[in-house]
Amino acid sequence: MESTLRQLTAYAAVARAASFTAAARQLHVSQSSLSRAVADLERELGAQLLERDTRNVQLTAAGVEALRIAEQIVNAHRSGMKELQRFLLGESGAVVVATLPSVAAVLLPQVISGFRSRRPEVAIQILDGLERSVLDRVLSGDADFAITTGEPSGRLEHRPLVRDRFVAVLPQEHPLAARTEVAWEDLAREPFLAVGRESSVRRLTDAAFAQIDAPAVPAAEAGSVATVGGLVAAGLGVSALPALVLPLLGTGPLVHRPLTDPVVDRRLDIALRERRPLPLAAQRFLETLEEFRTQQRDLPPGVSWA
Amino acid sequence: MESTLRQLTAYAAVARAASFTAAARQLHVSQSSLSRAVADLERELGAQLLERDTRNVQLTAAGVEALRIAEQIVNAHRSGMKELQRFLLGESGAVVVATLPSVAAVLLPQVISGFRSRRPEVAIQILDGLERSVLDRVLSGDADFAITTGEPSGRLEHRPLVRDRFVAVLPQEHPLAARTEVAWEDLAREPFLAVGRESSVRRLTDAAFAQIDAPAVPAAEAGSVATVGGLVAAGLGVSALPALVLPLLGTGPLVHRPLTDPVVDRRLDIALRERRPLPLAAQRFLETLEEFRTQQRDLPPGVSWA
DNA sequence: GCCATTGATGCGCACAACGCATGGAAAGAT
DNA sequence: ATCTTTCCATGCGTTGTGCGCATCAATGGC
């Protein structure tokens, strides 16, 4: 039982047209080709499917059944290939992006909304986590790409996406809140509330304090920026956070001021596996992102396209 | 988009096994063959499906999608061909038999029951009608074969099946009912209740009366034998019917006696189109019928295997 | 009786598919 | 570090499949 698609297609066309010549015209092949194909199919099946009279072609009982089944098979092939084609063209499937919670909450929503309006059938999955796990997701192939911080490492290619400036986060009534800008130096004199050591933010604040030779001993540290926000709002100290995460701080009595001397910003990159074919749906997503960048679409204050 | 089943099968095997060599062993082809087949498929699709590392083979996102779809298509082919095979082997499908109501009601039930116990998935359709329409059903291809009376005509091949002897049908209290046999001569002296002119029975009774030079003027005629039975039971006259139809006469006060001088029987044949491949399911049905005949299975009195 | 049309078939060509042998790369063994 | 094994890719020659062209036989319409 080894009948080819070609034979089934040929048979289906002939049976539907009830004519070899007509079917040959439709399929753009010679009549002889069809004649052979059908004859071969019949020989392999060991059954006559068509009743040929020099003038007419009609189906036997087996032929009726065979036509039904042949069309089933040919359709399965056609629709399957079409479905795959759509997937390969990035018109269906899923984009999996690994990223930091702040990016997921602040930057991505507008991009996703823009992308989905163009490719409504492409599902989008966000894997949010800290820097390390985000990169692992990409390396392991769980995610198509990441939007995250961190040095280009291993087999990942990085493309700069946005710059995210650090700002001082202060209790509303804090003296420094009176200024339009705050220097790291000033901040260093206050009790500092840091985020956890695994956070990408922490490394940068430590580095900033090191740069101005300030002691880098936080008064307290917390895992999530929301917690840090709470602590600051409660008046326990001040903090320095990238502008992008500010929306995650909640609605407490906080203010934020640009940090200077030095201006510090973290760079968020698109990270993808080198030499790895990116699924087209993911490519399209990145293109949307790129458009947003070239159009300089609105970003929260302190965040700018790279 | 012209990927062959061969390519899809090859790809599915390789993708499932995550190895060209292992898949090659399973499919009993050379590894090089698979390597090429998959490479060709990828080229045609314009997308990389497998990530080859000299040590491992793993699927890309497109590869996962392609595997799902390839298996879908290959399965559709496999199960379709299997289904067709079953049909061709007479293990599924339908047998359509055209026949007279009496055969349908009396002779067929036991045969069908025997056949269905062996081929439970083969449906059986009975087209019952009068002699003419029964033959037409076969000629037009609506039915696979017929069990009916009538002369071999046109493009039909006839195979004798049973002989069905005519018996006198009498009111229970009729004088002739006292005899063990009745001659046509005797019957001719009574008011005769005939069946309609389109019935195959009518032609034979007319012929019998002609043979003994009796006037063939029925006292009344009715379309169905059941009606004739009712008329006889009501004492309006007598009739002559083939033994096979007796069960159709209902339970009225009737008796029947073998008719002699001459003994008349109608022959019921299997009629099938000449030079026409009979669907295997139908062949199997006829074989069952043939078995019943060689085993001389019980038939109503007056009916005997030909 | 003649012509047009239909499906089957002989023939030759092109190429698709295969196996064999081999190459190169990398993991595991020594 | 070197050797061996294992894996996939590829060049090569052979075989067979698929195709179109030309042609044949049968048959219905004129």
From TrEMBL, chains A, B:
Keyword entries, A-Z: DNA-binding, Transcription, Transcription regulation
Stretches assigned to the HTH lysR-type domain: 1-60
SUPFAM superfamilies, alphabetized: Periplasmic binding protein-like II (SSF53850), Winged helix' DNA-binding domain (SSF46785)
Name of a matching Pfam family: LysR_substrate
Superkingdom to which the source organism belongs: Bacteria
Keyword Transcription regulation (UniProt): yes
InterPro entries per the UniProt record, alphabetical: HTH-type_LysR_regulators, LysR_HTH_N, LysR_subst-bd, WH-like_DNA-bd_sf, WH_DNA-bd_sf
Keyword presence, Transcription regulation: yes
Stated family: Belongs to the LysR transcriptional regulatory family.
Alphabetized PANTHER family for the sequence: HTH-TYPE TRANSCRIPTIONAL REGULATOR YBHD, NITROGEN ASSIMILATION TRANSCRIPTIONAL ACTIVATOR-RELATED
Identification of the protein by name: LysR family transcriptional regulator
Protein's organism: Streptomyces oryzae
